[in-house]
Amino acid sequence: MCEEQTVSLVDVLEEDEELEEEASAVLAGSDSDLCSYPQGYVKRQALYACNTCTSKGGEAAGVCLACSYKCHEGHDLYELYTKRNFRCDCGNRKFSGLQCKLYHEKDDTNSQNKYNHNFLGVYCTCRRPYPDPDDQVEDEMIQCVVCEDWLHGRHLGCVVPDCVELQEMICESCMNKNPFLWTYAAHLAVSGTEVLMEGERQTSASNVPKKEEKVDEVVEPSCKRSREEAEPSCGQEGLQAIPQKTDQSRGEEAEPSCRLMELQAMPQKREQSGAVFWPPAWRSKLCSCNTCQAQLSTAGLSFLLDESDTVLAYENKGKSNELRQQGHDPLMSALDNLNRVQQLEIIHGYNDLKTELKDFLQTFAAEGKVVTSDDIRQFFEQQSRKRRRVDAAPFYCS
């Protein structure tokens, strides 16, 4: 028999705190109370697709965070993480019989929205649901920064780098649709992500970092990987600076030449196959001359010149919003409106309750018992009775 795996309360609390932080990074950047529709095509926001309202071959549609709470509570929702330049569809023509509770004056459709198979609850080139009950392989999912689909690490056609959290990825399909990106990849992409041969693509799970359970998505077999604080030390060896030409006669910087053309004139050593991982700040190395800007615009890739477009920038914004909200804690605001005696009474009461709850739980830990909801309810009922006795006690002044 195998030993039963044990998990300490500390482990549970630490994991819960980590999951809360990740959820806050995704959700705090979006408004949970107001529909985002009046803002137009939001640069980046948390989105959901409602299988309850648009199932059985219905048109793909996406709803904002607030509408997922207020208009689709209890529905079967697909979590889409974040997507760029999207306007909330809730209550428009695609939702027959459902009206948005938060904003009524909406157009029939949002013509500039872009949809993919994620809105139908399937992901990756394998078109599987997430989480996938039939997939026994522990694998992480990574989002392409161009098509914004989520792909399994083993289906990327390359070895996933160790510091993947710090890097953006463009899938092989998007690279092939925009061949000029291979030129950048040959000089700017993360080195060491060797391309897998065709026969290795389906058997490369051992080369892929194991997925960790995270909560923004469903806590099953793993997570869709989000980005963390970028560190220049990781993956920077492939990021080469391209010098600007200067006007030698005047000693001044001349009009910049096309960086892409300069790179195209250099030897191309990278095989044009598999997904490409890019190091931090790689977007700042892309050419922004008029010709290249027009090319990016035609391809619908102008956002690649915008470093604030990244998921990392969005998450950092969410974390900043969370910190500001914590700074305006309603409980602390209420305490500020009380006099000094009342503040001390509440603080002492809170500390006493915390101490008694800790002692109460320690008895279960010492005896190896499981704490049930009935145990917790009885504890607070006991506290309530104790409080009533204290309040009813006569007061004597000596």
Automatic annotation (TrEMBL):
A zinc finger (UBR-type) spans 33-105. Residues 209-230 have a biased composition (Basic and acidic residues). Its EC number is 2.3.2.27. It comes from the Eukaryota. It catalyses: S-ubiquitinyl-[E2 ubiquitin-conjugating enzyme]-L-cysteine + [acceptor protein]-L-lysine = [E2 ubiquitin-conjugating enzyme]-L-cysteine + N(6)-ubiquitinyl-[acceptor protein]-L-lysine. It comes from Austrofundulus limnaeus (Annual killifish). E3 ubiquitin-protein ligase which is a component of the N-end rule pathway. Recognizes and binds to proteins bearing specific N-terminal residues that are destabilizing according to the N-end rule, leading to their ubiquitination and subsequent degradation. One of its GO terms (cellular component) is cytoplasm. PANTHER family: E3 UBIQUITIN-PROTEIN LIGASE UBR7. Keywords: Isopeptide bond, Metal-binding, Phosphoprotein, Transferase, Ubl conjugation, Ubl conjugation pathway, Zinc, Zinc-finger. This is Putative E3 ubiquitin-protein ligase UBR7. Residues 33-105 form the UBR-type domain. GO terms for molecular function: ubiquitin protein ligase activity; zinc ion binding. Residues 200-255 are annotated as: Disordered. The keyword Zinc-finger applies. Pathway: Protein modification; protein ubiquitination. SMART domains: ZnF_UBR1.
